[in-house]
UniProtKB/TrEMBL annotation, chains A, B:
<dbReference type="GO" id="GO:0006189">
    <property type="term" value="P:'de novo' IMP biosynthetic process"/>
</dbReference>
<feature type="binding site">
    <location>
        <position position="203"/>
    </location>
    <ligand>
        <name>ATP</name>
    </ligand>
</feature>
<dbReference type="InterPro" id="IPR005875">
    <property type="entry name" value="PurK"/>
</dbReference>
<keyword id="KW-0547">Nucleotide-binding</keyword>
<comment type="pathway">
    <text>Purine metabolism; IMP biosynthesis via de novo pathway; 5-amino-1-(5-phospho-D-ribosyl)imidazole-4-carboxylate from 5-amino-1-(5-phospho-D-ribosyl)imidazole (N5-CAIR route): step 1/2.</text>
</comment>
<dbReference type="InterPro" id="IPR011054">
    <property type="entry name" value="Rudment_hybrid_motif"/>
</dbReference>
<keyword id="KW-0067">ATP-binding</keyword>
<dbReference type="GO" id="GO:0004638">
    <property type="term" value="F:phosphoribosylaminoimidazole carboxylase activity"/>
</dbReference>
<feature type="binding site">
    <location>
        <position position="160"/>
    </location>
    <ligand>
        <name>ATP</name>
    </ligand>
</feature>
<dbReference type="GO" id="GO:0046872">
    <property type="term" value="F:metal ion binding"/>
</dbReference>
<dbReference type="InterPro" id="IPR003135">
    <property type="entry name" value="ATP-grasp_carboxylate-amine"/>
</dbReference>
<dbReference type="InterPro" id="IPR013815">
    <property type="entry name" value="ATP_grasp_subdomain_1"/>
</dbReference>
<dbReference type="InterPro" id="IPR011761">
    <property type="entry name" value="ATP-grasp"/>
</dbReference>
<comment type="similarity">
    <text>Belongs to the PurK/PurT family.</text>
</comment>
<dbReference type="GO" id="GO:0005524">
    <property type="term" value="F:ATP binding"/>
</dbReference>
<dbReference type="InterPro" id="IPR054350">
    <property type="entry name" value="PurT/PurK_preATP-grasp"/>
</dbReference>
<comment type="subunit">
    <text>Homodimer.</text>
</comment>
């Protein structure tokens, strides 16, 4: 008998009474990590995958492949779900609006999500309730850029595509009126946002979860280290951050989540400016890289609270379980086999937590992360950094 | 376009270089919970399921349905796995021996697993290295039972089927020579083991993980409460257990794992006798109900260490993360919908960890468990007991 010929699919009626089905658009590592907690909570996670073997498709029972930009595909996908949520923010706003018009529950909804999709819309909206932002202006010509630079005290300034940028893509640092980056930015074909280049001492991230009826929880404020626009290391809580500043950062994120009507996880990336201001840099409305520490480091992970929020279940405690938790991303390097290195890393550190995303190695690609926690920040940091560097082949001892 | 018509299957070559594929025979909640950690570690879990919608089949991408008693089915299943391991102990020993003869890696191997399958073989083997057991004897006639009773100081005694018993099934308490249970036991058609009825103060469980090259770790000794032969509550660590006794119980389990050549998790259920002896009751060679607390309560869960062990990866720390962790099973009661009760339970206790197995409710059936942890045993116990009782409908406030 060929067991591969037997049916492995099941339908909703085969699941226990009351089992919620959450549809996640996108099959990346965020959907994959969401599955870890969905399995625990008895929630059926359905993934609309970019391909049959993408990160999350390897990890869930139900991962139909389809184009998230095709309304009919997303509508068919959503038809078997109680709620639709996202692994990324690239689903067209108008498509989501049409789903809502059809009575499909979408969290976060398009009216909120647009603020994570369009930086100009986000800045405009934040200004209406005086959320602290860097100086900014939508620019249409190189002359506009020069005028903006004068307004903020001269170059350098930053240009960003209002839509479609991520992990440092779609961002340009402009040193002067003749900088070639200006032409490159305008050549991108989407509206361009100019922003003051903030003189910051470090980057912070405030992650909150909010449910439809308005319950919200705020995770400890973390410090994130970015390299070439990619998050490489997160320390929770942000070392040495004054309690009143941490509370201020949490309040800013909670206010934004409430004002924008976010449902699910909201990540607010901030600059801690040298002059002491906390300025909002970017928004993300999904589990975020700066929250991965919470899987092993918090009572309730950001993935669990995202699921609870989109299902309007009571939210879980975001409190940390250890004095310090450090997460370091594993970025593709010279080594193809991420598993061979585990022999060394797991033997060296029996308390290390390793997360691999089922992604083939490409230079700089996020293929996993490692987490260490404990009482001594320096020790915890060294353990996490060593493991990540060893797995990628950057070090060999 | 019909997205359901697109392929959702993938083959090994689509996975990242070095991705291990672990095959688990049986699609129950143990396989389902193993998937939570397999997803994190980038391990591909393949499940040989009893049906298309069983507990683990809902949670993994690759769950062919087939009969684990059919050699050809198991052989085809194993062909695409690096190692085969188990959700239950019912795979025939000779079938596993034939797999090993074919060069298929099976952990635990049949020579070890037989001791968890056959109680007579287990008792005989434990006697060879003086592991502490209750008095025992294979009996073939009612007269043998009477002789055995005389030898251990009279009735009551316990009769057990040597094979196929679980969760209290295949176990009879015999109060005297005329007890009808004697006939029932012999009518079961399998050899019967008679055991002394131990006068115990409580039941303990010692869980260890052992890898092929002999590395082993021992979890804290836990106290388990059984009801009608089913584990209902586990406290970690066992409250008030003297350190030397805990060490003795761990050593007994480590010795058994080494002597029997166990690879993976070994659970040794023990009686703490009123006279102070620690006596081995049962063995299980798979993640065990008395180890579920480790998902939320230990640095490395029993499921992660089982996967690490069968892949011969270095084992993780079994240390507890909190002073006390209590797990209470959610057994099927009057309520069919296990999800509705979450609204109350999660709101009442933001730190509660709920695990649902994707199983429809039947009276007494294990459909999930809840875990609470903290510094105060009584508080932790009350939180876990309340949540389990509420979910099953035993209480409504």
């Amino acid at each position: 008998m060929d067991i591969r010929l037997l049916p492995v699919k099941f339908s909703r009626k085969d699941l226990p009474v009351g089992t919620p089905v959450v549809g996640m658009v996108g099959g990346g590592q965020l959907a994959r990590m969401t599955q870890e907690t969905a399995v625990a909570l008895g929630i059926q996670l359905r993934v609309l995958a970019e391909g049959p073997a993408v990160s999350a498709a390897q990890a869930v029972a139900d991962a139909p492949v389809g184009d998230y930009k095709d309304p009919e595909t997303v509508r068919r996908f959503a038809a078997e779900c109680d709620v639709v949520t996202f692994d990324h923010e690239h689903v067209p706003t108008d498509l989501l609006q049409s789903l809502e018009a059809d009575g499909i529950t979408v969290h976060p909804g398009p009216d909120a999500l647009v603020h994570a999709q369009d930086k100009a819309v986000m800045r405009r909206r934040l200004d209406t309730f005086d959320a602290p932002s860097p100086a900014h202006q939508v620019v249409e010509t190189p002359a506009d850029v020069e005028d903006f630079a004068k307004r903020v005290g001269g170059f350098p300034v930053i240009l960003k595509t209002t839509r479609g940028g991520y992990d440092g893509k779609g961002v340009w640092f402009v040193d002067g009126p003749d900088d070639a980056a200006i032409g490159t930015a305008f050549a991108s074909g989407v509206p361009i946002l100019a922003e003051e280049k903030v003189d910051f001492v470090r980057e912070l991230s405030a992650i909150v979860a909010r449910s439809p009826h308005g319950q919200a929880v705020a995770y400890p404020i973390v410090e994130s280290v970015q390299k070439d626009g990619i998050c490489v290391e997160v320390s929770a809580p942000a070392p040495g951050l004054a309690p009143e500043k941490a509370a201020q950062a949490q309040q800013t994120a909670l206010t934004i989540a409430g004002e924008l009507g976010v449902v699910g996880i909201l990540a607010v990336e901030m600059f801690e400016a040298r002059d002491g201001r906390l300025l909002v840099n970017e928004l993300a409305m999904r589990p975020h890289n700066t929250g991965h520490w919470s899987i092993d480091g918090a009572i309730t992970s950001q993935f669990e609270n995202h699921l609870r929020a989109v299902l309007d279940l009571p939210l879980g405690s975001p409190a940390a379980r250890a004095p310090y938790t450090v997460m370091v991303n594993v970025l593709g390097g010279d080594v193809d086999d991420m598993h061979r290195g585990l022999l060394h890393c797991l033997a060296r550190d029996p308390a290390l937590k390793v997360h691999l995303y089922g992604k083939s190695v490409k230079p700089g690609r996020k293929v996993g992360h490692v987490t260490a926690y404990g009482d001594d920040l320096e020790d915890v940091r060294e353990r996490a950094r060593h493991a990540a560097a060893y797995l990628t082949g950057a070090i060999d001892e």
